[in-house]
Amino acid sequence: MPKHYDVIAFGTGSAMNIVSALIEGGARMRFAVIENSMVGGICLTRGCIPTKMLLEVAKNIRRIRESGKLGIRASIESVDFAGVMERVWRRIYLESKEIEHSLKRHPLIDLYQVDGTFVGDYTVDVGGREIEGDKVLLCTGSRPAVPRVPGIDEVEYYTNDNFFRDLRELPRRTVVVGGGFVGIELGFFLAMMGSQVTILQRRSRILPDEEPEISERLQEDLSRYMEIRTNHEVVELRRSGE
C-alpha cells in the first residue's frame, strides 16, 4: 500500500515557496519532497546566488583597477582563483546542507533524496517504494542546453551544472557559448580574473530578452574587457594542442 501524502513536491527550489506558504498558513498537510540533486534548487546551487558572489569579486577587481579615475593609486598584488571558487562552493554546500537538515527535521515533511518516477496518475516510485498524493507540484528546474555539434564529446567543457563545483584553475582563454545572462555573468567574472574571454552569441545582440537599449549599452561596456561576437553560431569543436 503506497504511503499517502496531501502533496508530493518535485524539487527543493521554488516548490519550497509553495510548501512553506501552505505550512505557514496553518495547513495541516503531509508533504513528500523529492530531490535527486543538491537540496536548495537551481538558484542556490548553480544559478543566481553563486553567480552574484562571483560578480561581487569581479566588480571589486574592476573598482581597484579603475580607481585611478578617482585619484586613487591602487593595485592588485594577486588573485587566488581557486580560493575564490572554493569559497563560493563551500557557501553553496553549507546553505544546501542547512536546508536539507531543516527539511529532515520538519514534522510535516518527508524528504526523499532519490529520483521520482510516476507509476500512476498520482503515484510515484521513490527508490523502489511507492508513495501517492492528492496533489503534485512539478518544480523540477531546468538543464543547460548543450549544443550537439561535431566534437562536443571530444573536448572538456563546463556548464553552470559543474562550473562552481569543478573549476579550480583559471583558463588562459575562454570561449563562452551563449549571450544570455548566465554566459555574460560568468564571462565577465573570468575576464576580470584574467582569462581572455570571447562570447559567441548566435542572435544579433546579447541578452536578447532585454530591451535593445539595455543590450546595446551593456555590450558597449563589456567589450572593454572581452570580445563579443554576435550572429555567430558554433558548428564544430576540436582540440588545438594540449
TrEMBL record:
The chain crosses the membrane at residues 175-195. Belongs to the class-I pyridine nucleotide-disulfide oxidoreductase family. Pfam families: Pyr_redox_2. The lineage of its organism: Archaea, Thermoproteota, Thermoprotei, Thermofilales, Thermofilaceae. Keywords: Disulfide bond, FAD, Flavoprotein, Membrane, NADP, Oxidoreductase, Redox-active center, Transmembrane, Transmembrane helix. Residues 22-241 form the FAD/NAD(P)-binding domain. One of its GO terms (molecular function) is oxidoreductase activity, acting on a sulfur group of donors, NAD(P) as acceptor. This is Dihydrolipoyl dehydrogenase. Its cofactor is FAD. SUPFAM superfamilies: FAD/NAD(P)-binding domain. It comes from Thermofilum pendens.
